[in-house]
């Protein structure tokens, strides 16, 4: 578990981010920027971000959900619906490099502090807008929610067992990838501003992000015009890429080429499977997966799943035991990769992007207070 003794500068040191967002996509973007050194000031309404109530569990009345998205920020409460709050936000915008917001389209404009209203006054400002569907078009300005976008974007249609109902992915994947896309957009705009000196609008919508996740199903549709179907844990294009039972815990096999399949068959004493014309090539294995799966499970029936996965990985065959969340977070490699962060009572997931000279750092636990941006270094 990581608790850095020394805090480095970070790749985004000197970048000031005004995080006006709430719920998930925007706050996740702000946390990523903060992890990499940006000075992030989060403005919440007097009652706080809605996710403070999304529990249990709670600590001091604040839900774990909130704690997972609001590290490396300092917090200020403002009511943006009143003139005093609007004026304070204008002052903060003038100091900021980046604004992140996910209000319903038109809300900030109603308050006189929208992107178009502020652009002429603050041409340097990079404005990241996270929305459900964007600002215009047939669904423009409508509110968007992760599960609803999973349904509309086709994600639920290809998730679940082949003979079961459409199923939501068990984490807010659309919200999270929208936060990642928002972060990418902010970094692109910061890079471009270095040339032009001009800010711009970064438009990150849940709908676009949901559709962007459809690989390889969209690619299959574009080429084959066959509507993708649910396939459970199995990959639609390659096999064995699936959860298989063993004599112990189930394992996930991710065999991507013929060499890996031959190694697998040899290791479990089933060399004949690799020579069978039904299974000799990747394309044939995918076509004949219904015949192949029970043959592999029969070969695994007397083997311990965890031991088998370790042995297969050691010889170059991608495989893994199916762990629960507690087991995954306690894995020795999780600690080695510094993917659990501790600051006092706070525990959270670490930054997945590792930079060699300017690594992420963890400076402020959630709920740290702040009344403005920090002074520039050396000021």
Mean pLDDT: 95
Order of helices and strands: EHEEEHEHEHHEHHEHHEEHHHHHEHHEE
Radius of gyration: 24 Å
Superfamily at the CATH H level of the largest domain?
Crotonobetainyl-coa:carnitine coa-transferase, domain 1
Low-confidence stretches: 2-6
Strand order, main sheet: write it out. Answer: 5-2-1-6-7-8
Q: What is the helical fraction, as a range of percent?
A: 25-40%
Keywords: Transferase
Enzyme class: transferase
EC number: 2.8.3.16
Protein name: Formyl-coenzyme A transferase
Provide the fold topology.
Blueprint lengths: L15 E4 L5 H11 L3 E6 L13 E2 L2 E2 H4 L6 E4 L5 H13 L2 E4 L5 H4 L4 H5 L6 E6 L14 H7 L20 H24 L4 E5 H7 L4 H8 L16 E4 L6 E4 L3 H10 L3 H5 L6 H6 L1 H12 L4 H10 L4 E3 L3 H6 L1 H5 L3 E4 L2 E4 L30
Helix pairs in contact: 1-7, 7-8
EC number: 2.8.3.16
Protein name: Formyl-coenzyme A transferase
InterPro entries: CoA-transferase_III_domain (IPR050483), CoA-Trfase_fam_III (IPR003673), CoA-Trfase_III_dom3_sf (IPR044855), CoA-Trfase_III_dom_1_sf (IPR023606)
């Amino acid at each position: 578990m990581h608790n850095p003794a020394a805090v480095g500068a970070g790749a985004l040191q000197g970048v000031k981010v005004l995080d006006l967002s709430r719920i998930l996509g925007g706050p996740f973007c702000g946390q990523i920027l903060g992890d990499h050194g940006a000075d992030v000031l989060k403005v919440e309404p007097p009652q706080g971000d809605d996710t403070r109530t999304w529990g249990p569990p709670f600590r001091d009345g604040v839900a774990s959900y909130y704690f997972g998205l609001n590290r490396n920020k300092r917090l200020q409460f403002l009511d943006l619906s009143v003139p005093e709050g609007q004026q304070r936000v204008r002052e903060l915008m003038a100091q900021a490099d980046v604004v992140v917001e996910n209000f319903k389209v038109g809300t900030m404009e109603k308050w006189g502090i929208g992107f178009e209203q502020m652009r002429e006054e603050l041409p340097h400002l990079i404005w990241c807008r996270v929305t459900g569907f964007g600002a215009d078009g047939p669904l423009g300005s409508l509110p968007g929610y992760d599960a609803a976008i999973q349904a509309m974007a086709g994600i639920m249609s290809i998730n679940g067992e082949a003979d079961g109902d459409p199923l939501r992915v068990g984490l807010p994947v659309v919200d999270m990838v929208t936060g990642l896309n928002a972060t990418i957009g902010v970094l692109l705009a910061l890079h471009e501003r270095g040339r032009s000196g001009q800010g711009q609008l970064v438009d990150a919508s849940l709908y676009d992000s949901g559709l962007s996740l459809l690989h390889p199903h969209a690619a299959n549709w574009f080429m084959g015009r066959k509507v993708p179907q649910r396939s459970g844990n199995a990959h639609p294009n390659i096999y064995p890429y699936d959860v298989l039972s063993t004599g112990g815990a189930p394992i996930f096999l991710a065999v991507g080429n013929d060499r890996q399949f031959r190694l697998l068959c040899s290791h479990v004493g089933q060399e004949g499977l690799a020579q069978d014309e039904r299974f000799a090539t990747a394309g044939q294995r995918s076509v004949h997966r219904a015949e192949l799966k029970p043959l592999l499970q029969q070969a695994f029936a007397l083997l311990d799943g965890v031991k088998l996965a370790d042995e297969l990985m050691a010889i170059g065959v991608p495989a893994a035991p199916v762990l629960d969340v507690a087991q995954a977070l306690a894995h020795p490699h999780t600690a080695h990769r510094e993917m659990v962060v501790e600051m006092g009572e706070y525990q959270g997931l670490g930054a997945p992007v590792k930079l060699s000279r300017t690594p992420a750092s963890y400076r402020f636990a959630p709920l740290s207070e702040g009344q403005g941006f920090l002074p520039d270094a050396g000021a």
